[in-house]
Amino acid sequence: MKKRAASAVLAVSMVVSLCGCGKGGNQEKGGQTGTLAEQPGNATAQTGQNGEASSEAADGAEPYVPVYPIVEEPITVTGLVVDGDLSVSESRIVWDLVEEVTGINIEWINIDKEALSTYLAGNDWPDFFHTYELSSSEVNDYGVLGGRFVNYLDYLDVMPNLAKTYKDYPLTLAASTQLNGEVYNLFQVTGGSATGTTARPHVRLDVLRAAGITELPTTVDELYNQLVILKEKNGEPGMILDTDNKFGYIPMLFAAFGTLNNPVFDTDQSQKVVFAPITEQTKHYYEFLHKLYDEELMHREWLTLDNTAKNQFAQSGKVAFLPQPSAQMLSETDLNGEWDNLSCVAPLTSEYDSTRTLAGFVDYRPVAGMYINKDSQYVEEICKMFDIAFATEEVAEGTGLYGQAFTHGLEGVDWKLNDDNTYEQIVPEGFSSFSAYQIQALRWQDLGRAEAIGLATTSTPGNAQARQIAYVENVIPYQITENIFPQDPSAILKFTDDEQYVIDNKYGDINLYVEKMKAEFITGVTDIDKGWDAYVAQCEKMGIDQVLEVYQASYDRWREALNSLN
Fold it and tell me: Model pTM?
C-alpha cells in the first residue's frame, strides 16, 4: 500500500524520538524533524470555507474536503467488538447514523474477551477491531512486527479532523505512536472532565458537622485531629482508606508528604523517574497511616473489607472520609436528605510539603482501539468514516453527527448543555440510567473528540451531581496536568521487547513485595524505623534500578516526542 504524503507531517519526528533499540523498534534514526506547523509542503489540518475540516495536500493537489456519503455506491465492512452488551440491541444508534451518512454498512461481530487471542491468531480478520482489549504485546506482534494494522499517519490527508486533534492535543499522538513511529489505534479525548474518577477523596459533611466539625481539613494534622474527634464522638474509626493507588485518599495523602504526586512511579524536578515506594516521602506517608491505624482512627480491615461492608459503614453516619465506590452508593436518605452533604476534600499539606497538588486528569484515553486490518479493501473509506469521530461540528447538516456523539450521543436528543454550565442526559424509557443506555444501545465504546461537555456538571440533582460539583470545586483546581508522569504508564509509554522483558521478569515480584511491606509498615507488623533500610535494599536487590532504567528510557522517548509536537 502506498505511503501517503500526510504521514510526513508527524511521523518523521516521531520516528526520531520514539524509535528504540531491541526487537520492537529497530529503525535507524534520521530524517526531517519539526512540528506540525513547521513542516513546509506537508499536509496540515485546515478549516474549509464553510467550516468543514480539510487537508492541504503536499503534492499541490486539491485539499481533501469530506463529502457525504463517502462512497458513491454502498459498501459493507465488518467490525469486531469484544464483550459488547447485546441485552437490548445488536447494533448501536450512533453507528447506525454513521452508516446512513457515509453509505458504509457495518456488519458487527461480537466475541467474548477469552476468544480474542484465538481470533487474532487466525487469518479470518474483520475490516477493523473496535476494542481496547488488545494488549501491548499483541499490538506489537500484529502491528509493529507483523505489519497487519493500518498506520493512521499514512491517511491523515483524508482524516483532517484527526490531524487537527493531534495538533490540538499532542499527547494523543505521542501516546498512540509505537516504537516504529506508526500509529494503529484511535482514542477518546475530553479536554478535562468533571466526571473523572481519579484522586477523589470523598467526605460526608453531615457526619463532620454532627461531631462539631465545621471546616474541611487543609493539613494532615487537621485531618488527624478531626479523626480523633470522630472516634471520640462515634466510638468507631471515621475513615476507610482506599486500596487502589490511583483513587481517593491514597494519591491525595501521599502527595501531602513531598513533591511527588504518584504513589508508584513518578518523576522528580529534573524529570528523573523515581520509584516512589522507596522514597522518604513514602516513609513519611506510611508513618502517618500507621499512626491512624495504631490509634484506630481508620478502619483496620481496610484491605479486606468487601464492598458490601464498606457501603454499610458509609451509610452508618459514623464514617466521614470515604472511598469512592462507597460514596457512589449513598442515597439522599443516607445523607440526611441533603445531597450537598456529599463532598470532596481538597489536597492537604504537611511539614514536609506546603503545596496543595495532585496528579491531574489525563484527557487521553486509548479506549476504542479502532485497529484497521491492513488487508481490508476499504481502508481509505474506513479512515474517512472514523474521522467523523474527531469532528468538532456536525459533518452533515441536520444529523448532529460529530465527535461528541461517539461518547454521549446526539446533542438535543441524548444530551444538552445549559447556559449555567450544566448538562442534561436524556434517558430513554426502558433504561435504568444513561450509562446503561450508552452501553446497551447508543455506542460500543467511547471514541473520538468529546470535549463539548468538558467541566460542566450534570443538571440532575443526585449523587453524581454532588460528587461532580465537589470534584470541580475542591480537586480540579489543584491538579497538575502538564509534564506529569502518567498514573497508568502502560497506557502511554511504549517499551521495546527487551525493556518489556525486564518489566515482566522483575517488576511483578517487586510490586508484590512492596504491597506486602506497605501493609506491614502501616499495621506495625514491621517497625518502619527498624525495617525501612532493609526494605529499600531488598527492592534494589530485586532489580528496581534496572526497572527504573527501562521506565526512564521510555519516558525520555515519550517526552521528547511530546515536546517536539508542542
Answer: 0.82
